[in-house]
Every structure is written in C-alpha cells, then in structure tokens.
Design goal:
Layout (H helix, E strand, L loop, with lengths): L1 E6 L3 H16 L3 E2 L8 E7 L3 H17 L6 E7 L2 H7 L5 E2 L8 H8 L21 H4 L10 E5 L1 E2 L10 H4 L4 E2 L2 H13 L4 E5 L17 H15 L4 E5 L8 H9 L6 E3 L7 H7 L5 H14 L4 E8 L6 H14 L3 E6 L17 H24 L5 E9 L5 E6 L4 E5 L9 E9 L3 E6 L10
Helix pairs in contact: 7-8, 8-9, 9-11, 12-13
Length: about 450
C-alpha cells in the first residue's frame, strides 16, 4: 500500500507533515512521489491564502476522477477554516484536524480501505480533539538530515483582524519544555546543523501555563546552555515572534549564546499606526521601533526579516507610504510582502475590500523594488568578508553549490564537492546582488572560481 502526501503553507505545516509521514509509515504504508501509484492520497491544507486553497480543489477534483478507475482514499487536514472544511467534507473521504492525526489508523480502518472496500463516511460527526499534544508526541520523519523544525507552540490568542490562524489552529498552547529540549538534544546528537523553533507566536511560549512552564527567554537560555555543553556546531532559529510579546530578555539570550542565530524575523505588517490599530496588532510604530533599536544595540550583526501586507482594507496611499518609510528606516534584509486577501472567519472578511487589485499590485511592486535596493546595498557591504555558511545543496547553475549565512543571506559559490552539503564551510564574499551574494571557499580555494 502506497501513500502520497502534499503539504501546503508554512513551516508549521511542514513540521506537522513530518509527524504525519511517521504515522502513515507505522501503519504500513510506503511513501511514493508519484500520486498515480498511491492508494492513500492526503493534503495538509492552508486556509490562510486563497491560492493554497485553490490548489486543494484542483487536486481533489483530479483524485475523485481516479476513483472510477481504482480503489483509493483521500483525506485533508492542516490549517483549515470552518468554511473550507464544510466544502471539503463533500469532496474528501476524511477531514480532520491535525490534533486528531493519531486517530488516522482507526479512521482508515473504519472507512474500509484495509479490506479493499471504499465506503463513504460522515466525517462531519467525527469528534474534534483539540489536544495537540498527541501529535507532538509522535517521532517525526524529518525532511532533511541536517535541518529540522521543532514545534514549541501552537495556535494564537491575538486575533489580528486579517488573520485566520485562531480559527484554524485554535488558541495558544505551549509544548512541554522537557519534550522540546529532549527533541533538540536528540537532533544535536544526530548531527543536525540548523534547528528552527516553530509557533504562531513563539515568544508567547509558556504564557498559557503560568507557574507551570518556563518563559520563552528561559527556553532559549536552556537551549543555549545545551549548545555550549554539546561542543557541536549548530544554529537555532525561531519563527515567528509577535511584537506584542517581544521582551528584551529574548534579545539578551540571543546575544549571550553562540548557537542562538543572530537573525530576527519580526512581522511589522504595516508601517502606519492607524492601519495597525485596524489590524488589531496591539502595538504602534514607536513600540516596534524600540524593539528594533534594542536588537541593533545588543545584536548589531543581526539580520532583520519581516512580513508586510499591502492593500489592507482602508489603506490609503498615505498609509502605504508610511510602510515605505518604515522599510527605509528599519532596513530589512528580507520582507515577505503579501497583497491583502480577505479570509472567511477573520474579522476583516466582513469589511469592504476597498483597495483595488491594481492598487495592491502597484504597491506590492513598489515596496518589493524598495526592499530589493535595501537588500542589495546591505549585501554589497559584505564583499571581502568571510562567513560560516551552511551548505544546503546544488545551485541551479552547474558546478555550483548554495547555502545560507547565520543571518540567512543566500550564498552561491563554485564547487563540485557535494560532500559539503549539510556542513558548515567558510566562504569569502566576492560579489553581491539584491537577494544573494557570491563567494569563494577559503578552504578549497584552488578548486573554486569567482563568478
């Protein structure tokens, strides 16, 4: 019996898929990259973006046609809004939240696929288990042998008006720190070089268990001490922190421990205070500025990543220009810029989507162009400097590899040594473009050429 699993959306869904692979393989299923060979077809969906949902519909319509030719079962899970779930119930054989993933063997057995009989099941009556801990207790099958995602928190209590996450993931729940540290220690012993702590609001970690669990800053401290005691070279990242919960102690810990990577992804969403209020973000530009200034003070070498939405309901040209000013002030190395799209369930879905598609496209392009110039200027300042780079794989250009600096700047360099993939190596930057740099290995310089 073969299965094929499609994962859409963010890194949290990727992490969940690693545990889903483990569940399916324990059931006796064998993974196949060819969906045409699979008896079990699944999707971890993402209701946060309409494009991701469109991909779900495209796939399930094709799969349901295959049912006329052979016996198979389909399922969907992941981040799914109630409105999308109601539609999926009519299209998929099984629809369930990720917190119920451990019950999949029982679901499939009840469905009848193990006996070769395909029966329709009313999944709308399935009891919902909002306890995510059973999924966290599954040993994942990691997507890489040197990079890993470690979930530490799930859900969100912030209820930003544009966001669907509270309605897909539920309220904030923290994973026990003991389990987190055990997973990280296991990864370090296994030679993993890059570990990313995941959560919708990682720096709210422990707030749902006051008096019973440590804070996010304390968690970073214990991870830092684990790293020092290990004597191994690896880096720990986290995403994403919410500015409302960003404490100076978090930055202090990052400055103290070498394994805590000097890169901060902190979503701004808008550079205009009125839009931030409308978004229910819970901070203004001055509060955000204080956080960035503290990062610059304690971590002057750190890179800054952010998220920005353009074309949010009610955003005028003046509001947008304030986002442009913020981009210029904070000099982000990378910004994930999104054109606003209303999502069912989120508060803003009830409001008029009054910014035209043409204006959204124009603002997206202008802000992206601004980001490109800022990033290129920063990268040019790296020329002549040497960095430790985690080599990720073969570049699209023949005879070249690529990797990331500690600050997640993309580095490309000439080399045919695939044995470097998954290891750290020293690279001297020789050239720069807007979102990447070029370099030369200091260890194997005689084998490399500048491009």
């Amino acid at each position: 019996m073969f299965y094929h699993l499609i994962t859409l959306g963010c890194q949290m869904n990727v992490s969940d898929s690693e545990r889903m692979h483990s569940i399916l393989q324990k059931m006796g299923y064998v993974h196949t990259d060819d969906e045409g060979d699979a008896n079990l077809l699944g999707i971890l969906a993402c209701s946060v973006r309409q494009k991701a949902i469109d991909k779900v519909y495209s796939r399930i319509h094709k799969w349901n046609k295959w049912k006329n030719q052979r016996n198979l079962i389909t399922f969907v899970s992941g981040c799914v809004l109630p409105a999308d779930k109601e539609k999926f119930l009519k299209l998929f054989d099984l629809v369930f939240p990720m917190s119920d993933a451990n019950q999949l063997p029982e679901m499939i057995h009840e469905y009848g696929v193990t006996s070769g009989i395909s029966l329709k099941r009313d999944t709308a009556r399935m009891p919902l288990n909002e306890n995510i801990f059973s999924l966290w207790n599954v040993n994942p099958i990691y997507h890489s042998n040197f990079e890993a995602f470690v979930p530490i928190q799930n859900g969100c209590d912030k209820f930003c008006t544009f966001c669907a996450v509270p309605y897909t993931r539920g309220r904030e729940v923290s994973r026990p720190s003991k389990d987190i540290l055990e997973e990280i220690e296991k990864l370090v012993r296994g030679g993993y070089k890059s570990i990313t702590l995941l959560g919708q609001n990682v720096n709210s970690y422990g707030k749902d268990k006051k008096g019973e669990e440590i804070s996010f800053a304390e968690l970073l401290k214990q991870i830092g001490e684990l790293g020092e005691a290990s004597g191994r070279e690896f880096l720990v990242y986290f995403t994403s922190p919410h500015p409302r919960d960003m404490k100076p102690e978090v930055i202090d810990m990052m400055s103290k421990y070498k394994v805590l990577a000097k890169m901060v992804h902190i979503p701004l969403q808008s550079g205009d205070d009125k839009i931030l209020v409308k978004m229910n973000r819970g901070y203004n530009l001055e509060k955000y500025r204080e956080i960035i200034h503290y990062i610059w003070e304690k971590l002057p070498e750190a890179t800054l990543f952010t998220d920005i939405i353009v074309g949010f309901t009610g955003e005028t040209e003046e509001h947008f220009l304030n986002s442009c000013k913020a981009m210029e002030e904070f000099r982000f190395n990378m910004a994930y810029i999104a054109k606003y799209s209303a999502r069912p369930g989120a508060a803003s879905y009830r409001w008029d989507d009054d910014v035209s598609a043409a204006d959204k496209k124009d603002r997206f392009e202008r802000l992206t162009k601004q980001l490109s110039g800022i990033s290129e200027n920063y990268n040019k300042g790296l020329i002549g400097k040497t960095f430790r780079v985690l080599v990720l794989g073969k570049d699209r250009k023949p005879g070249h590899l690529y990797g990331l600096t500690e600050g997640k700047i993309i580095v490309r360099f000439s080399s045919n040594q695939e044995s470097l993939i998954g290891t750290f190596t020293d690279i001297t930057v020789t050239g720069a473009s807007d979102f990447s740099v070029e370099g030369e290995s200091t260890v194997h310089a005689h084998e490399l050429k500048v491009f």
